[in-house]
Design brief:
alpha/beta, UDP-N-acetylmuramoyl-L-alanine:D-glutamate ligase, nine-stranded mixed β-sheet
């Protein structure tokens, strides 16, 4: 497993770029989707959450490639992206046909869960503008070669949206690879996205092809099994508990099968209840394992986006020249902090991440 080679910031316009869908998240707060009378609106998406965190928390220059519906919901999305400080100049806007038959804005209804009631997501994202993007729509040469990008991130949520989104992901990865940009990919297996799209066999077919271009692979224990087909010994089918040594053996197997991988990282979450989780992370790079600080019985306010915030903290560690141990701790700390506030995206500051990553606690700062 070779070491990552990352371009210097002076060589590029963008520290990081991402490809994915950004949805409007409709949040009923403490209530239920099925009975609420009001929703709060956030923006969010597995790939977007990463580059937003890199900008808002870690002060890096980031850009997002997506599709946007040409109506007022698209304008709302653009406004929310702008508030997050992420550039979206390489995104494509699709003309609205009046009812969204062709291109529409994706919606994600999400309730946080509490105690014995788990979080619930109900997505309404068929035929969205982002899923309509196809090879040839984006000027990758301008992005990766003219502007220059240090790190490119995408994931299994976007590649599952449509046949063309998977094809576009491969096109983007090839362009990034040619330009010497580091590529990370979060497996992010979602059964609902593959339910009518070939199921798990099709997910594994696509993800195993994409894995050939990846430098840094991200995913939890279930992702590697469901999305890539690697089995973990001594694990429950529900993945409620995990034998960490068996998991490390599986990671080594992944690294052997894909010698292009230079790092593999994952969060380790054991769900005690919707609002209490054991939380840590592990990173495998340069032939060694690095485990983050373990946080047993971490109190959760909103778990959605915790893994994405782990990814942005980890990526920041690599981009800023941190050691592997520091990088995995920045990721785990950022993910933990992101789950203390509502919405998909992080509200944490770099100072807070640094404090928690170094072992600090929740004593009041005055």
């Amino acid at each position: 497993m070779s070491k990552l080679k990352i371009k210097s910031a002076s060589e590029t316009k963008w520290d990081a770029a991402a490809l994915g869908e950004i949805m409007l998240r409709l949040d009923p707060g403490a209530g239920r989707i099925r009975s609420t009378r009001e929703f709060k609106v956030w923006e969010g998406g597995g790939e977007y959450n990463v580059v937003r965190g890199l900008h808002k928390c870690f002060n890096l220059n980031t850009t997002m490639v997506t599709g946007i519906a040409g109506n007022d919901l698209g304008l709302l999305l653009e406004d929310l992206i702008s508030q997050g400080g992420v550039d979206y100049s390489y995104s494509k806007k699709f003309e609205y046909d009046g009812i969204g038959r062709s291109f529409r804005q994706g919606l994600n209804f999400v309730e946080r869960g509490f105690g014995v009631r788990g979080a619930l997501g109900v997505s309404d994202r068929a035929n969205t503008a982002a899923s309509a993007l196809k090879p040839g729509d984006i000027d990758w040469k301008s992005l990766f070669e003219k502007d220059g990008v240090r790190w490119f991130h995408t994931g299994g949520i976007y590649s599952a949206l449509s046949e063309t989104s998977a094809e576009l992901t491969i096109e983007a990865m090839k362009a990034a690879k040619s330009a010497g940009t580091v590529i990370s990919y979060d497996l992010n297996y979602r059964p609902s996205l593959w339910k009518t799209n070939g199921g798990q066999p099709r997910a594994q077919e696509i993800n195993r092809e994409l894995a050939k271009y990846v430098d840094v692979m991200l995913g939890n224990e279930e992702d590697f099994s469901a999305a890539l087909g690697f089995k973990i010994k001594n694990s429950e089918k529900s993945f409620r508990s995990l034998d960490i040594e068996s998991y490390k053996e599986m990671i080594k197997t992944v690294a052997d099968e894909y010698p292009n991988l230079k790092a593999i990282a994952t969060t380790l979450r054991e769900v005690i209840s919707a609002t209490v989780n054991d939380w840590s992370a592990v990173l495998y790079t340069e032939g060694r394992f690095f485990r983050s600080i373990e946080r047993p019985r971490l109190e959760i306010y909103d778990r959605v986006g915790g893994g994405d915030s782990f990814a942005s903290g980890l990526i920041y560690g690599f981009l800023s020249g941190k050691t592997p141990e520091e990088s995995v701790n920045y990721g785990a700390a950022h993910g933990a902090l992101a789950m203390t506030t509502p919405g998909d995206t992080s509200m944490a500051s770099l100072k807070e991440v640094e404090k928690l990553a170094s072992g600090g606690g929740a004593r009041v700062d005055r």
